## 1
Amino acid sequence: MDTTKSVWLPEQASTFANSVDWAFNLYLWISVAFFAIIVVLIAYFVVKYARKRPDQLATAQIVHNTFLETTWTAIPLIIVMALFVVGMKGYWNMRVAPSNAMQVDVTGRKWAWSFDYPKEGVSTDTLVVPVHQPVRLRMTSTDVIHSFFIPAFRTKADVIPGRYHSLWFEATKTGVFQVFCTQYCGTNHSYMWTAVKVVTPDEFQAWVAAAADPSKGKTPAEFGEILYSQKGCVACHTVDGSTGIGPTWKGIWGISVPLEDGRSVTVDEAYVKKSMNEPATDVVKGFQPIMPPFQGVLSDKEEDALVAYIQSLK
Amino acid sequence: MASTTLQEHEVAHHFDDLEQEFESQKFGMWLFMASEIMMFGALLVGGLFLLYLHPDAFAESRPHLDWRLGALNTFFLLTGGFTMARAAGFAQQREQGKVRTNLILSLLLACGFLVVKTIEYKAKFHHGLLPGHAFHGEGFTSLHAHIFFGYYFVATGLHALHVLIGMGLMIWCLKVSKRVQFTRDYYTPVEFAGMYWALVDLVWVFLFPLLYLVG
Amino acid sequence: MTAHVHDNINYLKTSKGLKSWLTTVDHKRIGLMYLASILVFFITGGLYALLFRLELWTPNKDFLSVDQYNNFFTMHGVIMVFLVVVPGIPGALGNFVLPLQIGAKDLAFPKLNLTSLYLYWLGAILAVISLLAGHADSGWTFYAPYSLSKNPAVMWMLTAAFLLGFSSILTGLNFIVTIHKMRAPGMTWFRMPLFIWALYATAIMQVFATPVLGITLILMLVENFFHIGIFDPALGGDPILMQHFFWFYSHPAVYIIVVPAFGIASELIATFSKKEIFGYKFIAFSSVAITVIGFLVWGHHMFVAGQSEVADTIFSFLTFFTAIPSAIKVFNWTTTLYKGSIELRTPMLYGLQVLFNFTIGGLTGIILAILSVDIHLHDTYFVVSHFHYVAMGTTMIAFIGGIHYWWPKMTGRMYNEVVGKFASLLVFVGFNTVFFPQLIMGSQGSPRRYYHYLPDFQIFHQISTIGIIILAVGLFTALINLLMSLRRAPDAPQNPWGARTLEWEFAETPPVLFNFKETPVVTHGPYEFAKEGA
Ligand code: HEA
Ligand code: HEA
Ligand code: CUA
Ligand SMILES: [Cu+2]
């Protein structure tokens, strides 16, 4: 198996990559051949039959040749039918997950991903999977359509609100691989990245154990900082004072914030919690009411941790 | 019968003769109808798809439409189609007066359709059976009844718009009939209004069962 | 024949003043007005591309904000598709040339033709309003539920697209009737120039596919206002249904875009080879075949959208058949050159570019139809490059070639040949520099609609951006060359290219008001160069 990158295709890191790349390269050479034939013929004719005198007519008025027409209908037809079969085989393989696949639930929201492992009972914002283990992603979105794309695995599927769409793969080597959102989903579509970390089964077990209680051994504020990126707040809120999609969190604790409807509120625990659970009630002046509600997504402990974290950002 | 003030129709400059003009216009009209049919066809496919998605919403909502009123409206439209066809027939026989009678009859039937439609709409409004967010109908167990009524209003509304356009065409025919003598070779306006009305009928013939009867 | 007095003066001179143009029903003047409007929007769309391509010079922010970027590619896509390439060749060149090429005095419905133009303008105005009403940023595909976010700019855009669709339907209807009913004596179906066949196939798609776009847009608007829940999953609707509706139109639309360009390519290649086109009937019927197949393949845009696997497989299977009529065209054009008498005038240079670019564009389309490969390539720059090779590289290049070809007939002026050739060379180099790197970048996995990208892809983006600068210089040179010719005295001969179609053989340069001093009688095929005559 060729695992190095080629000019045309990225690194291969899943069981699909070989068959996809094989089809790609096969087709690449077919098209290079056709392209070369056509371009060489055109160039040759243009030079060879260049008009010499202004009123010169074509030297022969050939208008039809049944043999040629049949040939150049039949050959492409055969080729494309072969391509269809190759593509279909590879594709059905991608759609049918093996029964021993490990399940991970994926949620896309503007503009972050989160991953829940129902059996292991952990959640993360970076997908971690064991190598050589089929993994089935059960994906849904809380707002608009996103798409989950791992170039090195040659796989992708749309993530659709109100539906579960699944995707499976089996990683063939350890490492960290880029994940993109490839369905346009608004402002920060091009920032909606994450990674798949492929680890050995032992490392995976160790990771699960550590991830099962992420707050262990941390202060609430430290835990809040983890949640800040894990729960996707990072997509819209900065902690360095610059304005993002939403207001920054730096230095807001205790100050009075003007609201869209003219009122103003003081940032305290109650207000922050309300902002998380029903953000549309108190919309900060100058911002769109686009923050998704986190009611039911955050546990009490997590809410407290986030409050502590915001409080810590002086 | 033809009065003396009526003039003969003049062929437009770029056509060779009346026949070419008439044939062209008729062909154009057919294409336009085909285009409309594609539009309504897609709308109907959408409706069937919604029915497939939410059969419960359709089953629960349908009793709120009165099939008798729908049937009455079907009668109005189809009879109107008949009178329009008669109008086109008389136009070919230069029977200007009968053409007008039939046009007026068709107009009245179309008005009848709209009156019934208004009654139905009013009842829906009264019971809060409105599209989307505006929906506040009572006693529904399905969560998606608003989709049925949303579709109902879009589909019948678009159809009613076509009824209005069809009536506009009839009025136009009445106007032309006062100015120009219809003949065997020139009865284009009446023919077109008739074709258009056939389209209005056709669409209704599909909408009626989908909304009032099926399931 | 009616005894109409023909106005035997050049159509540009029959009457004067702005009003005479705005109320004209002469297909030639309407064609010119379309041409001017379309060029204005082509330049606008191109400027958007220039700006956002400059922004892509580095992976992070250069001078546009994220929202501006998203707005710009949306405006670029919508303008280019709905205001430039879809109405482009039929509206401008089709309008001007169609009646001349079949020997008619005008289109069947001149007033309807003017109505189409006004609808086009109205749509254009709404598109501009949408610009002022905030920023539309849904992409040209308007996917729900994102586009349902009540953004008023998106709503204006939807309405604009609706009107433009209506305009397109009326143009198509007009063309079909004209071709069926208004051909000159002796103009049999198989003596029609291939440009006419192409317009005919296009018109069929315009009449039958565009209404589906119409109803889609109506439903989207209603959904936006009343939240019916047809497409919005939050209300129980189905966003995939919206995609089916959209692509049911928009796939045939890509053939609405490209088939007229095939027509122009056929004219150019035959005329500048002074040779009868090879396989006339095959080329003519392949346009019709593309039309028919084009209606059955829309699902290939949705291979990762979650339609059923069976549907994916069927759509993939059907999609491959589009290769056959396209292959037939490409091979017949190439063979036409064999033993021809080839003259590389400016229009021919564009004609050959069409062959070159379409081969790449078409071949990259086929790879997208291979199911397993498309899963990887979908929504990457590979797709972007594919459709620019066909939409810009084929359609717009053919359009520009066609403008150069019919320019003498439209205006009575010859442009500078040397400058014209030079510009076409720049366009060729520039275009391929923009889009070839995108193929590699795309298959490497670079997603489209990305403001912010991986540093690995920077080199491809930079080459691409240099490309558009070369391309823009080339296009501007070509445009200025054409415009400069207007300052000269009328000097174009009646038939500068020695073509055999009616507009060159029978009509004056520029044509008279009703096209011909007397109705032409056709005695030979459109490309019978060997036969005596004229
Ligand atoms: C403008 C015109 C145009 C044209 C003509 C085409 C032509 C084709 N297109 Fe393209 N396409 C678009 C415009 C166009 N497309 C656009 C705008 C999009 C993206 C929209 C968006 O998402 O924003 C798109 C996207 C698109 C996709 C979806 C990709 C994705 O999003 O994942 C697919 C998939 O099948 C596809 C396929 C094809 C095919 C098979 C053809 C065929 O018709 C090509 C046939 C031609 C040839 C094959 C070349 C000539 C033949 C030979 C030289 C003979 C030898 C050939 C073989 C043996 C194969 N196109
Ligand atoms: C269909 C027609 C069409 C045409 C012609 C073009 C033309 C161009 N397009 Fe575009 N493009 C689209 C349709 C088109 N595009 C669509 C549908 C999208 C998807 C949008 C979406 O994602 O929603 C897109 C997206 C798109 C992207 C991807 C953006 C992203 O995903 O983030 C890029 C990136 O490079 C790009 C670049 C260009 C460039 C460089 C040109 C150049 O070819 C432009 C050249 C033009 C000029 C520089 C103007 C100068 C012109 C003249 C002076 C006139 C000359 C006149 C005569 C000679 C008579 N386009
Ligand atoms: Cu999420 Cu794009
Ligand atoms: Cu397509």
Note: Chain A touches chain C through 86 residues (CB under 8 Å).
## 2
Amino acid sequence: MTVLDLLDQMQTHLGVPWQSQRAGGFSDGVLAGDPYAQVTGILTCFTPTVEILRHAISSGHNTVICRESPFYSRGEKQPVAYRSGAMPAKELLESDPVYQAKLALINTNSLIIVRFVDNWDARKTDGQLEGLAKAIKWDQYHLAVKGDKHFYRPGNNFFSIPPTPLGSLSRGMMESLNARTIRVMGDEHSVVRKAAILHGLILVPDLQAAFAETGVDLVIAGEPVEWEGAEYVQDMIAAKMAKGAIFLGSEVSEEPGSGEMATWLKTFVQLPVQWLPSGSPFTTIPQETK
Amino acid sequence: MNRLTRRAFCRIAGAGLGALSTTPGLWADSSKITAREIMARMSRNVGVKPFWPTADTIKIGDPDETVTGVTTTFMSTLDLLQRSQKAGNNFVISHEPTFWSSSDVVADLRDDPLYKLKVDFCETNRMVVMRYHDTWHARRPDGIFAGFNRWAGWQEYLYHEPGMERGIFYKLPPTTAGEIARHLTAKLNQRSVRLVGDPQTPVSRVGFAGHYISECMTIAPKVDLVIAGESREWECAEYMRDAVALGEKKAFIQLAHEGMEEAGMDECANWLRGFVPEVPVQFIASGDPFWIPT
């Protein structure tokens, strides 16, 4: 099976029409490597770090399917409202030592990097939501019609949880997700009862939709734009219209979805498929040593 | 105030009001000062030629409101506005937006209950909120980094990297990435400083990446430690993680946007006091919005 055959299979099993064109930035498809190469095995992950690529080489999985690109941008020339950075200029990128070494790692070892985001997210089941909800063991609290075939359809993201102080809830989540540096907003003693799960980068309309649902006092997400969504949540808390937010980080919030993706791929791909978490890039700051 | 009059107002404020305010008789009561007059004095004192478009306009309130006191801050959150009002300051000069977007466009917010509540609070308390972002950054030295250098105690360590006129670089006495993270946590009153790389990484040269990957890529080869304010997590943090994995002896500190820039508004308060003697001018921190559970 070539990489193009794999993409063809993915389109066949997607369940919705493939839509590959974006207004700006990278589209789904092959970001690096030879599309005609034979696939020897597949790794799914949030982002293809150098560590992930090394594992792909040593374990014989030559194809990496991910959400973020290998080179630290979403390929946009003019990102909307400066929320993210523009793709680095060609001269800057090509003279960069990290870029050169990583590209050499990809080329020398004939790796293939496939972006799969917009089409994965367009499915009738929100794999990112489902993965995250299960990872924090909230399946049991999901507010949805039981037996619905598309239980985790997009927007079906509300959870009624046993009343819990925000602090202990956050700490439990860090353990479930093996995350070291999640960021929380709100009083740790506030008791939360109903939450919306979002993932990745969130914008103000996402928050408005989440808090418009009756009783939602907590949002779980990846990362906010700090002069947009973060301020919105701060104000919701000050207005006593919400209790808080847990920002897991983009990688932490998206990674369980890559596990769902591996599970889905295994239903039709007869090659080794493995989910390999990229892990959060951040470490904790150790306390002063005497 | 609608968008058109706000825009017209700004043009006037930039161009002509400075002259008006010195006209005898117009400001008969010397103890009273309006937001408009303070803005005109800022424009005269900052040493930046007025430009358009700019985000530096009044976001809510009447520019002719009598000012009872001035608050400078990183961001005019509802909590900050409430604390400013309690402190007796009805004029808030905020580095970042009030209505949750860089343009403070409110057209889509009319039905948002939070928007209504924030507007009501300002109107009930006769608050005036102005953004002061583009001009304060355009001042030389950049008002935001002047504040950062003072709070961090790094003024004396600044150096110029040849060929990088706009970059901000420090040559510190030998230390480690972890030590710097702790230092900045304390000096900048932070709760959410995050690190990429080994905390034991030896550090002397430090550079600021601002917010974006292109800035990070430009300065990383020159320094041991890169600091960014808010940056999307798939940009600078992932780049620095890979740099470390490839064997580079470097580290990365990600501050909240507030952590990088709040000190600059303390600097702004100090500057304002020099030419606004009529009313108290107070810096009030909006504060690190995040905390990290341990």
Note: The two ends of chain A are 58 Å apart (CA to CA).
